[in-house]
Amino acid sequence: MNTPRFQKIFLLLGSSVLGIFIAAVTIGIFLFRSEVMHQILQRDGILLTNVARYLHETGEASSLANWDLVELAAGSSQIEGIIAVRVFRPVETLVEQVPDSLYAVSLAEEDRQLLQDGKPVIRYFEAYPLYSLFSGIEEFDLEESAPLVEVIAPLLDEAGHTTASIQYWLDGTEVSTEFAQLDRQLMFLGLIFVLGGGTLFSIVFLYARKRLTGMAALLTQRNESLERANADLAMAARTSAIGSVSSHLFHGLKNPLAGLKAYLQVTAKDEEAVAITDRMQSLIDETLSVLRDENTAPETDLSFEDLMQMAGTRLDSISSSRNHPVNLSGSGSGSYPSRKLQLVLLILRNLVENAVEASPAKSPVQVELEGSETQLEIRVRDAGPGLPESVKEKLFEPVISSKSGGTGIGLAISATLARHVPATLELVQSDTGGTTFSLKLSQ
Questions:
Q1: Is 12 in the same domain as 161?
Q2: Taking Cα atoms as reference points, which of 364, 398, 368, 367 lies closest to residue 383?
Q3: Are 392 and 427 in contact (CB under 8 A)?
Q4: Is residue 370 pLDDT above 80, yes or no?
Q5: Could you tell me the CATH number of the domain that includes residue 351?
Q6: Which residues span the domain enclosing 393?
Q7: Contacts 24+ apart (CB under 8 A), 88-94
Q8: Strand partners of residue 337
Q9: Which PROSITE patterns match (predicted)?
Q10: Given 171, 191, 217, which residue is the final one in a domain?
């Protein structure tokens, strides 16, 4: 799972979630902004509506022509900034307007419907074209456009019916300033939300990525372990089949082989045939000894010196039968279970046989033993050309042997025996200077 494709998908998923979060924050701020702006406009609109209704109910606004825009505020500074007023009765007919430079217009149909229902109309224009509101705007020393607030207040009779409507046009500079301040505050708030949420999300994202990567690595490791276990089971099936018949086979071969050896020694002059017969006899005896010890022999401990002596005997036999030098050296101490050492010596024989085959004639095979109370290590080094890369990749797996009559399971069996000890068999070095294998047994 920890692949470029997985990383790309995970990054895309994280970016999508972060994008959704930012979009949600933006939409939330926009909706909140709209609601606050609506409340600000409602504040001014309701105030003017209440003032208009008060003037209407007390009779103080009997004639619009007598109104002074400052007096219209009824002494309240909160309604300063009115620049124009129109009066409609009830909602269709324009009755009066101040100042006279206002264009005479009718109310829109949707506005009239709201006013008939007793509801005020409140709007904000960020840049309203004053030339569409006034004729001769130069008289007012105003810009061509300006922020304006439009409020249309219905005046109701005792029965709740709309008898008249007053349209106020207010200078929207103060409202525009409030909106700008609101935008700055919301932008700052949104930035805090995005940075804070983004930071928190990044922490969670990185933690989740770390956990998933760890889980992926663990899953990969378990898959590899499962594959190795399956390979071990397959190998065990092959080796167990060999082991189940080897005892009977070797017992059956032992006596005929002894007779063949005696016959060759008396009648034949072929020294190589005699040597091969000796190797076969030695291998059969050693294997039968291991099988017998595994099943019946009591467990005993052998010293490092005992191991050196046993290894020397077997290596001398290999060197003599192959007519190839094998040098044994070692130092150390400690004691080791005899059953484990029997398997270790079988592995050693296999490694040395392979090393002899890989080394040029007369080039000695080096065997080194190092022992302690906690560990035993055996190194076998040949003088061959090194292993091909294709062989290194599947060194301890059963393969098709390139040797005539070979089974292709020599090193694989050695690795299986090492795991049975248990011990560790590994390739230490392999180049043009030779190949070195290490077998480690921990106490």
A1: yes
A2: 364
A3: yes
A4: yes
A5: 3.30.565.10
A6: 303-442
A7: 88/164, 88/165, 88/166, 88/167, 89/163, 89/164, 89/165, 90/115, 90/116, 90/161, 90/162, 90/163, 90/164, 90/165, 91/115, 91/116, 91/154, 91/162, 91/165
A8: 301
A9: HIS_KIN (PS50109)
A10: 171
Provide the terminal-to-terminal Cα distance of the chain, rounded to the nearest Å.
38
380-404 tens-digit pLDDT = 999 999 988 888 878 887 654 444 3
CA 362 to chain centre: 57
Strand 301-303 to strand 335-337: parallel, antiparallel, or no bridges (unpaired)? antiparallel
Rounded CA-CA distance 259/277 in Å is 10
Whichever domain contains 78, its CATH number is 3.30.450.20
| pTM for the structure as a whole | 0.42
Residue 171 DSSP one-character state:
E
CA-CA distance, 385 to 383, in Å (whole number)?
Answer: 7
What mean pLDDT do residues 146-157 have?
Answer: 86
φ and ψ at residue 123, rounded to 5 degrees: -140, 155
Q: Which residue carries 């009765």 as its tokens?
A: 89
Which of 144, 171, 198 is at the close of a domain? Answer: 171
Tally of domains within the chain: 2
Q: What is the CA radius of gyration of the chain?
A: 51
**Whole-angstrom Cα distance, residue 139 to residue 269?**
140
- Cα(336)–Cα(376) distance, rounded to whole angstroms? 9
14 shares its domain with 162: yes
Amino acid residing at 403: K
Q: Is 216 exposed, middle or buried (0-12, 13-18, 19+ CB in 10 A)?
A: middle
Higher pLDDT, 63 or 154: 154
Residue 130 lies in a domain: yes
Q: Hey, what amino acid is at 93?
A: T
